[in-house]
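[job 4417] fold queue: 2 targets
>>> target A
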Amino acid sequence: MASRPPGFWDSSASGLLLGAVWSPCVGPTLGAASLLASQGRDLGSVATTMLLFGLGAALPLLLLGTLSRELLIRWRDRMMGLGKGLKVALGAILVATGLMIATGYDKAAETVLVNASPAWLTNLTTRL
Protein backbone atom coordinates (compact mmCIF):
# COMPACT_ATOMS: atom_id res chain seq x y z
CA MET A 1 0.00 0.00 0.00
CA ALA A 2 1.45 3.36 -1.01
CA SER A 3 2.02 5.97 1.66
CA ARG A 4 0.50 9.38 1.08
CA PRO A 5 0.86 12.60 3.04
CA PRO A 6 -2.01 13.40 5.39
CA GLY A 7 -4.67 15.60 3.89
CA PHE A 8 -7.29 17.95 5.23
CA TRP A 9 -9.79 15.21 6.12
CA ASP A 10 -7.16 13.03 7.82
CA SER A 11 -6.04 15.94 10.00
CA SER A 12 -9.62 16.98 10.70
CA ALA A 13 -10.58 13.47 11.79
CA SER A 14 -7.53 13.28 14.05
CA GLY A 15 -8.39 16.65 15.58
CA LEU A 16 -12.00 15.64 16.13
CA LEU A 17 -10.94 12.42 17.85
CA LEU A 18 -8.39 14.25 19.99
CA GLY A 19 -11.03 16.79 21.01
CA ALA A 20 -13.46 14.06 22.03
CA VAL A 21 -10.83 12.26 24.10
CA TRP A 22 -9.28 15.39 25.57
CA SER A 23 -12.41 17.37 26.48
CA PRO A 24 -13.09 15.66 29.85
CA CYS A 25 -9.59 16.64 30.97
CA VAL A 26 -9.49 20.17 29.62
CA GLY A 27 -13.11 21.06 30.30
CA PRO A 28 -12.84 22.09 33.98
CA THR A 29 -9.72 24.19 33.40
CA LEU A 30 -11.08 25.91 30.33
CA GLY A 31 -14.40 26.40 32.09
CA ALA A 32 -12.68 28.16 35.00
CA ALA A 33 -10.75 30.43 32.63
CA SER A 34 -13.96 31.23 30.73
CA LEU A 35 -15.73 32.01 34.00
CA LEU A 36 -12.98 34.48 34.88
CA ALA A 37 -13.37 36.13 31.48
CA SER A 38 -17.16 36.34 31.76
CA GLN A 39 -16.92 38.30 35.03
CA GLY A 40 -15.25 41.16 33.15
CA ARG A 41 -12.78 42.00 35.91
CA ASP A 42 -9.02 42.20 35.35
CA LEU A 43 -9.21 41.33 31.66
CA GLY A 44 -5.42 41.60 31.29
CA SER A 45 -4.98 38.75 33.77
CA VAL A 46 -7.69 36.75 32.02
CA ALA A 47 -6.03 37.28 28.62
CA THR A 48 -2.69 36.17 30.05
CA THR A 49 -4.31 33.09 31.59
CA MET A 50 -5.97 32.18 28.28
CA LEU A 51 -2.75 32.76 26.33
CA LEU A 52 -0.73 30.60 28.71
CA PHE A 53 -3.46 27.96 28.68
CA GLY A 54 -3.39 27.87 24.88
CA LEU A 55 0.40 27.64 24.76
CA GLY A 56 0.42 24.95 27.43
CA ALA A 57 -2.12 22.93 25.47
CA ALA A 58 -0.58 23.44 22.02
CA LEU A 59 3.14 22.99 22.64
CA PRO A 60 3.03 19.40 23.96
CA LEU A 61 0.70 18.42 21.11
CA LEU A 62 2.98 19.98 18.50
CA LEU A 63 6.02 18.26 20.01
CA LEU A 64 4.25 14.91 20.24
CA GLY A 65 2.92 15.20 16.69
CA THR A 66 6.32 16.04 15.25
CA LEU A 67 8.20 13.33 17.12
CA SER A 68 5.58 10.64 16.64
CA ARG A 69 5.40 11.18 12.86
CA GLU A 70 9.16 10.75 12.44
CA LEU A 71 9.20 7.76 14.76
CA LEU A 72 6.27 6.10 12.99
CA ILE A 73 7.90 6.59 9.60
CA ARG A 74 11.08 4.90 10.86
CA TRP A 75 9.23 2.02 12.53
CA ARG A 76 6.60 1.51 9.81
CA ASP A 77 7.97 -1.77 8.39
CA ARG A 78 8.46 -3.30 11.84
CA MET A 79 4.94 -2.36 12.90
CA MET A 80 3.45 -3.74 9.68
CA GLY A 81 5.17 -7.09 10.29
CA LEU A 82 4.05 -7.12 13.92
CA GLY A 83 0.50 -6.26 12.83
CA LYS A 84 0.35 -9.27 10.51
CA GLY A 85 1.48 -11.58 13.32
CA LEU A 86 -1.01 -10.06 15.77
CA LYS A 87 -3.81 -10.42 13.21
CA VAL A 88 -3.10 -14.16 12.94
CA ALA A 89 -2.88 -14.52 16.75
CA LEU A 90 -6.15 -12.67 17.32
CA GLY A 91 -7.83 -14.73 14.61
CA ALA A 92 -6.70 -17.92 16.36
CA ILE A 93 -8.04 -16.62 19.68
CA LEU A 94 -11.40 -15.81 18.08
CA VAL A 95 -11.63 -19.26 16.46
CA ALA A 96 -10.73 -20.93 19.78
CA THR A 97 -13.32 -18.82 21.61
CA GLY A 98 -15.97 -19.70 19.03
CA LEU A 99 -15.18 -23.41 19.36
CA MET A 100 -15.36 -23.16 23.16
CA ILE A 101 -18.77 -21.48 22.96
CA ALA A 102 -20.04 -24.01 20.40
CA THR A 103 -18.94 -26.97 22.54
CA GLY A 104 -19.93 -25.48 25.92
CA TYR A 105 -16.38 -25.42 27.30
CA ASP A 106 -16.61 -21.65 27.80
CA LYS A 107 -18.66 -22.21 30.97
CA ALA A 108 -16.04 -24.56 32.40
CA ALA A 109 -13.28 -22.04 31.60
CA GLU A 110 -15.33 -19.26 33.19
CA THR A 111 -15.78 -21.35 36.35
CA VAL A 112 -12.03 -22.00 36.59
CA LEU A 113 -11.23 -18.30 36.11
CA VAL A 114 -13.81 -17.14 38.68
CA ASN A 115 -12.55 -19.66 41.24
CA ALA A 116 -8.94 -18.53 40.63
CA SER A 117 -9.67 -14.80 40.85
CA PRO A 118 -9.46 -12.93 44.16
CA ALA A 119 -12.73 -12.24 45.97
CA TRP A 120 -12.43 -8.45 45.55
CA LEU A 121 -12.21 -8.83 41.77
CA THR A 122 -15.21 -11.16 41.62
CA ASN A 123 -17.22 -8.75 43.79
CA LEU A 124 -16.19 -5.80 41.62
CA THR A 125 -17.17 -7.48 38.36
CA THR A 126 -20.46 -8.99 39.58
CA ARG A 127 -21.72 -6.05 41.65
CA LEU A 128 -24.07 -4.62 39.01
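>>> target B
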Amino acid sequence: MTKPITVWLTPPGPNPWKVITILEELQVPYVIHSFKFDDVKKPPFIDINPNGRVPAIVDPNTNLLLWESGAIIQYLEEVYDTDNKLTYDSLNEKHLLNQYLHFQMSGQGPYFGQCGWFNALHSEKLPSAIDRYVKEDHRLLGVLNTVLEDKTWLVGDKCTFADLAFLPWNTRLDMALLTPPGEDPLAPYPNVQAWQKRMESRASWKKVLEVRSKLMDEQGLQPNGIPKGIKTFQEYEEHIASANEAKK
Protein backbone atom coordinates (compact mmCIF):
# COMPACT_ATOMS: atom_id res chain seq x y z
CA MET A 1 0.00 0.00 0.00
CA THR A 2 1.34 3.44 -0.97
CA LYS A 3 2.10 5.66 2.02
CA PRO A 4 1.12 9.33 1.73
CA ILE A 5 3.72 11.75 0.44
CA THR A 6 4.23 14.80 2.66
CA VAL A 7 4.16 18.10 0.79
CA TRP A 8 5.60 21.14 2.54
CA LEU A 9 4.08 24.37 1.27
CA THR A 10 3.01 27.92 1.93
CA PRO A 11 -0.50 28.33 0.45
CA PRO A 12 -0.26 31.68 -1.40
CA GLY A 13 2.43 30.83 -3.95
CA PRO A 14 1.63 29.06 -7.24
CA ASN A 15 4.51 26.56 -7.33
CA PRO A 16 3.24 24.11 -4.68
CA TRP A 17 -0.06 23.77 -6.48
CA LYS A 18 1.65 22.42 -9.58
CA VAL A 19 2.73 19.47 -7.47
CA ILE A 20 -0.63 19.05 -5.73
CA THR A 21 -2.39 19.10 -9.12
CA ILE A 22 -0.18 16.28 -10.39
CA LEU A 23 -0.76 14.27 -7.20
CA GLU A 24 -4.51 14.73 -7.62
CA GLU A 25 -4.37 13.73 -11.29
CA LEU A 26 -2.43 10.57 -10.47
CA GLN A 27 -4.45 9.84 -7.33
CA VAL A 28 -1.30 9.51 -5.24
CA PRO A 29 -2.06 9.90 -1.51
CA TYR A 30 -0.51 12.93 0.13
CA VAL A 31 -0.62 15.03 3.27
CA ILE A 32 0.13 18.74 3.40
CA HIS A 33 2.38 20.45 5.91
CA SER A 34 1.20 24.04 5.56
CA PHE A 35 3.05 26.93 7.16
CA LYS A 36 3.30 30.71 6.84
CA PHE A 37 5.45 32.36 4.20
CA ASP A 38 7.23 34.29 6.97
CA ASP A 39 8.75 30.98 8.13
CA VAL A 40 10.08 29.79 4.78
CA LYS A 41 13.66 30.74 5.71
CA LYS A 42 13.49 29.30 9.24
CA PRO A 43 13.68 25.84 10.82
CA PRO A 44 12.19 23.36 10.49
CA PHE A 45 11.64 24.08 6.79
CA ILE A 46 15.19 25.29 6.16
CA ASP A 47 16.28 21.81 7.32
CA ILE A 48 14.05 20.33 4.61
CA ASN A 49 15.09 22.73 1.86
CA PRO A 50 18.21 24.83 2.53
CA ASN A 51 17.15 27.12 -0.34
CA GLY A 52 14.05 28.16 1.59
CA ARG A 53 11.60 27.77 -1.27
CA VAL A 54 8.40 25.75 -1.51
CA PRO A 55 7.37 23.11 -2.32
CA ALA A 56 9.36 20.22 -0.97
CA ILE A 57 8.25 16.62 -0.59
CA VAL A 58 9.18 13.69 1.60
CA ASP A 59 8.24 10.34 0.08
CA PRO A 60 8.28 7.54 2.69
CA ASN A 61 7.86 4.95 -0.07
CA THR A 62 11.33 5.68 -1.46
CA ASN A 63 12.92 7.56 1.48
CA LEU A 64 13.45 10.56 -0.80
CA LEU A 65 13.38 14.20 0.23
CA LEU A 66 13.12 16.42 -2.83
CA TRP A 67 12.69 20.11 -3.59
CA GLU A 68 12.26 22.23 -6.75
CA SER A 69 8.78 21.83 -8.25
CA GLY A 70 10.01 20.81 -11.70
CA ALA A 71 12.19 18.06 -10.25
CA ILE A 72 9.31 16.89 -8.07
CA ILE A 73 6.97 16.70 -11.07
CA GLN A 74 9.49 14.65 -13.06
CA TYR A 75 9.95 12.35 -10.07
CA LEU A 76 6.21 11.83 -9.61
CA GLU A 77 5.84 11.05 -13.29
CA GLU A 78 8.65 8.51 -13.28
CA VAL A 79 7.59 6.73 -10.11
CA TYR A 80 3.81 7.03 -10.00
CA ASP A 81 2.51 7.61 -13.55
CA THR A 82 2.90 3.97 -14.58
CA ASP A 83 -0.07 4.20 -16.98
CA ASN A 84 1.32 7.30 -18.75
CA LYS A 85 -1.80 9.29 -17.88
CA LEU A 86 0.07 12.61 -18.02
CA THR A 87 3.08 11.64 -20.10
CA TYR A 88 4.33 9.67 -23.10
CA ASP A 89 7.02 7.03 -23.28
CA SER A 90 8.01 7.72 -26.90
CA LEU A 91 11.38 9.46 -27.32
CA ASN A 92 10.32 12.65 -29.09
CA GLU A 93 7.28 13.30 -26.91
CA LYS A 94 9.22 12.68 -23.69
CA HIS A 95 11.76 15.34 -24.58
CA LEU A 96 9.16 17.78 -25.86
CA LEU A 97 7.36 17.49 -22.52
CA ASN A 98 10.60 18.23 -20.68
CA GLN A 99 11.24 21.16 -23.02
CA TYR A 100 7.95 22.79 -22.02
CA LEU A 101 8.47 22.02 -18.35
CA HIS A 102 11.84 23.77 -18.52
CA PHE A 103 10.19 26.67 -20.35
CA GLN A 104 7.70 26.99 -17.52
CA MET A 105 10.43 26.79 -14.88
CA SER A 106 12.83 29.23 -16.56
CA GLY A 107 10.33 31.52 -18.26
CA GLN A 108 6.77 31.70 -17.03
CA GLY A 109 7.34 31.18 -13.31
CA PRO A 110 10.27 33.57 -12.79
CA TYR A 111 8.98 36.33 -15.07
CA PHE A 112 5.39 36.22 -13.81
CA GLY A 113 6.77 36.20 -10.27
CA GLN A 114 9.11 39.16 -10.82
CA CYS A 115 6.33 41.08 -12.54
CA GLY A 116 4.07 40.56 -9.55
CA TRP A 117 6.85 41.53 -7.17
CA PHE A 118 7.73 44.82 -8.82
CA ASN A 119 4.13 45.68 -9.70
CA ALA A 120 2.53 44.95 -6.34
CA LEU A 121 4.93 43.89 -3.59
CA HIS A 122 8.18 45.83 -3.87
CA SER A 123 8.43 48.73 -1.42
CA GLU A 124 9.60 51.13 -4.15
CA LYS A 125 8.03 51.65 -7.56
CA LEU A 126 10.71 51.08 -10.21
CA PRO A 127 9.23 51.91 -13.62
CA SER A 128 12.09 50.33 -15.57
CA ALA A 129 11.74 47.02 -13.71
CA ILE A 130 7.95 47.06 -14.02
CA ASP A 131 8.20 47.79 -17.75
CA ARG A 132 10.73 45.00 -18.28
CA TYR A 133 8.71 42.29 -16.58
CA VAL A 134 5.33 43.36 -17.95
CA LYS A 135 6.81 43.17 -21.45
CA GLU A 136 8.38 39.78 -20.72
CA ASP A 137 5.06 38.42 -19.45
CA HIS A 138 3.38 39.47 -22.68
CA ARG A 139 6.24 38.08 -24.75
CA LEU A 140 5.97 34.69 -23.01
CA LEU A 141 2.21 34.66 -23.51
CA GLY A 142 2.80 35.39 -27.17
CA VAL A 143 5.14 32.41 -27.41
CA LEU A 144 2.54 30.13 -25.82
CA ASN A 145 -0.18 31.52 -28.06
CA THR A 146 1.93 30.67 -31.12
CA VAL A 147 2.80 27.20 -29.83
CA LEU A 148 -0.87 26.42 -29.17
CA GLU A 149 -2.09 27.51 -32.62
CA ASP A 150 -4.37 24.73 -33.93
CA LYS A 151 -3.50 22.60 -30.89
CA THR A 152 -5.47 21.50 -27.85
CA TRP A 153 -2.46 20.57 -25.72
CA LEU A 154 1.25 21.36 -25.81
CA VAL A 155 2.32 17.84 -26.77
CA GLY A 156 0.25 15.11 -28.37
CA ASP A 157 -3.47 14.65 -27.96
CA LYS A 158 -3.90 14.74 -24.18
CA CYS A 159 -3.33 16.98 -21.19
CA THR A 160 0.09 16.24 -19.71
CA PHE A 161 2.23 17.34 -16.81
CA ALA A 162 3.77 19.96 -19.09
CA ASP A 163 0.41 21.66 -19.62
CA LEU A 164 -0.53 21.51 -15.95
CA ALA A 165 2.77 23.04 -14.88
CA PHE A 166 1.61 26.35 -16.41
CA LEU A 167 -1.84 26.26 -14.81
CA PRO A 168 -1.30 27.81 -11.32
CA TRP A 169 0.81 30.73 -12.52
CA ASN A 170 -1.69 31.57 -15.26
CA THR A 171 -4.41 31.89 -12.62
CA ARG A 172 -2.34 34.57 -10.85
CA LEU A 173 -1.56 36.63 -13.96
CA ASP A 174 -4.14 39.27 -13.10
CA MET A 175 -2.27 39.98 -9.87
CA ALA A 176 1.08 40.15 -11.63
CA LEU A 177 -0.18 42.57 -14.28
CA LEU A 178 -2.62 44.39 -11.96
CA THR A 179 -5.39 43.70 -14.43
CA PRO A 180 -8.52 45.82 -13.83
CA PRO A 181 -11.41 43.92 -12.16
CA GLY A 182 -13.57 42.05 -14.63
CA GLU A 183 -10.90 41.84 -17.33
CA ASP A 184 -9.20 38.61 -18.35
CA PRO A 185 -5.46 39.15 -18.89
CA LEU A 186 -5.45 36.14 -21.22
CA ALA A 187 -8.08 37.62 -23.56
CA PRO A 188 -5.46 39.00 -26.01
CA TYR A 189 -4.11 35.45 -26.32
CA PRO A 190 -7.13 33.35 -27.36
CA ASN A 191 -5.22 30.08 -27.74
CA VAL A 192 -3.77 30.41 -24.25
CA GLN A 193 -7.12 31.50 -22.85
CA ALA A 194 -8.95 28.45 -24.26
CA TRP A 195 -6.15 26.13 -23.10
CA GLN A 196 -6.28 27.60 -19.60
CA LYS A 197 -10.05 27.14 -19.40
CA ARG A 198 -9.68 23.50 -20.43
CA MET A 199 -7.25 22.93 -17.58
CA GLU A 200 -9.33 24.84 -15.04
CA SER A 201 -12.31 22.60 -15.82
CA ARG A 202 -10.46 19.47 -14.68
CA ALA A 203 -11.54 17.80 -11.43
CA SER A 204 -7.96 17.93 -10.11
CA TRP A 205 -7.85 21.73 -10.29
CA LYS A 206 -11.26 22.12 -8.69
CA LYS A 207 -10.01 19.99 -5.78
CA VAL A 208 -6.83 22.06 -5.58
CA LEU A 209 -8.87 25.25 -5.27
CA GLU A 210 -10.86 23.74 -2.40
CA VAL A 211 -7.73 22.65 -0.54
CA ARG A 212 -5.91 25.92 -1.19
CA SER A 213 -8.87 28.05 -0.10
CA LYS A 214 -9.10 26.18 3.20
CA LEU A 215 -5.39 26.60 3.92
CA MET A 216 -5.48 30.26 2.95
CA ASP A 217 -8.45 30.83 5.23
CA GLU A 218 -6.56 29.23 8.12
CA GLN A 219 -3.85 31.86 7.65
CA GLY A 220 -6.27 34.77 7.40
CA LEU A 221 -5.81 35.16 3.67
CA GLN A 222 -8.32 35.60 0.89
CA PRO A 223 -8.21 33.24 -2.12
CA ASN A 224 -6.15 35.84 -4.02
CA GLY A 225 -3.49 35.80 -1.29
CA ILE A 226 -4.35 39.24 0.09
CA PRO A 227 -5.01 39.44 3.86
CA LYS A 228 -8.63 39.50 4.88
CA GLY A 229 -10.05 42.98 5.30
CA ILE A 230 -8.10 44.40 2.36
CA LYS A 231 -10.34 44.91 -0.67
CA THR A 232 -8.14 46.31 -3.45
CA PHE A 233 -4.59 46.04 -4.76
CA GLN A 234 -4.12 49.70 -3.87
CA GLU A 235 -5.03 48.98 -0.25
CA TYR A 236 -2.67 46.00 -0.35
CA GLU A 237 0.17 48.19 -1.64
CA GLU A 238 -0.48 50.65 1.18
CA HIS A 239 -0.53 47.77 3.68
CA ILE A 240 2.83 46.50 2.40
CA ALA A 241 4.35 49.98 2.46
CA SER A 242 3.19 50.45 6.05
CA ALA A 243 4.62 47.08 7.07
CA ASN A 244 7.96 47.87 5.43
CA GLU A 245 8.10 51.24 7.16
CA ALA A 246 7.45 49.59 10.50
CA LYS A 247 10.45 47.29 9.99
CA LYS A 248 12.86 50.22 9.59
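[job 4417] complete. Note on B: Residues 91-201 form a domain with the Glutathione S-transferase Yfyf (Class Pi); Chain A, domain 2 fold (CATH 1.20.1050.10).
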